[in-house]
Amino acid sequence: LQMEAELKQAPENQALSVVYQPILSLADQKILSCEALARWQHPERGMIPPSEFIRLAEEGGLIAALDMWVLRQACKQTREWQKTIPGAADLKVNVNFSDKHWAQTDLVDRITGILQETGLVPGDLILEITEKALAENRTLAAGLPGELQALGVQLQVDDFGKGQSSLELLACLPLDALKIDLSFVSNMQEDATQMKIIQTIIQLAHNLGMKVTAVGVETPAQRDRLEASGCDFIQGYLVAVPQGCQQMTDLLRLAFANPTQNDKERA
Ligand code: C2E
Ligand code: MG
Measuring from atom 41 of ligand 1, which residue has the nearest CA? Predict the structure, then answer.
């Protein structure tokens, strides 16, 4: 209970922050987006992993406020990068959305408000939702994604492959991409079955008109196999670990200043 109370106060105590991890497009080797990830620096306990405090926030009914706080920071920061970093005008941002949000009736209005306030174009916001949200909230899921699509916001399914996705829902909902769960990628070199699962997910996504991001890419060998299998985007320590705002600004400046091999070939 004490931790919950502390978590509630964390944003105003400057104990909550957002770090960013780049997502790289394999087709042109450019940074397409950054995933915003929440961090909680507890005054006595130190850094609390998201796996712990997100659960705490969900159980304590704080998750909607926390996710909205992250969303506002992430939209504001991304708009800033778009305006100040040459070449980054189309940079997008991925924000995680807990299952609990789907019960909020004013969700679309709140997201619209944050976009207007920060100046980020809806098409530059990508919401990451879980398979669980789709499976558990069938009726809500049918309406809300359509409203978000009408607004122009992109929707991706996070941790894909670990939940209980309904193939029917995947086919009929306006989803832009699937993010392959990190556990498949970490074992793909050693375990042929994991590689087959990845290839099947890529094919499924492409057949349904969606893109695919592989999360947890740590080695060039993993990247090469994913690229050969048709994966669209990668995210992982190979590209960069999650970064604070200042470090991410430096990284983006460098990335957008250096033309990629593809750019050189096109020129
Ligand atoms: P996620 O959305 O699947 O985010 C990716 C996680 O994988 C992040 O962990 C990231 O640091 C980690 N990761 C990325 N690349 C690699 C890699 O190459 N190797 C390894 N070992 N790990 C990698 P993180 O930051 O600890 O976040 C864990 C989870 O907490 C997230 O998983 C997400 O589900 C949740 N989360 C984080 N921030 C928020 C938030 O603001 N709202 C909500 N609802 N959930 C959040
Ligand atoms: Mg995510």
Answer: 38
Average pLDDT by stretches of 10, the chain with 267 residues: 88 91 97 97 92 92 93 98 97 93 82 97 96 70 80 95 82 92 93 95 97 98 97 98 98 87 60
User: Which residue has the CA at smallest separation from atom 7 of ligand 1?
Assistant: 216
Ligand 1: atom nearest CA of 218 is: 18
Distance 66 CA to ligand 2 centre (A): 15
Count of residues making up the chain: 267
Nearest CA to 122 out of 97, 90, 154, 96 is that of: 154
C-beta separation of 31 from 22 below 8 A: yes
10 Å CB burial of residue 81 (0-12, 13-18, 19+) is buried
Residue 207 has a pLDDT of: 97
Nearest to 36 by CA among 267, 244, 262, 238: 244
101 in Cβ contact with 107 (< 8 Å):
yes
Q: Where are the beta strands (DSSP E) in 43-132?
A: 46-48, 92-96, 125-130
Residue 36 Cα to ligand 2 middle (Å) = 8
Q: Which ligand is nearest to the CA of 70?
A: 1
Helices (H), 152-231: 167-172, 182-186, 192-207, 220-228
Contact 139, 102 (CB under 8 A): no
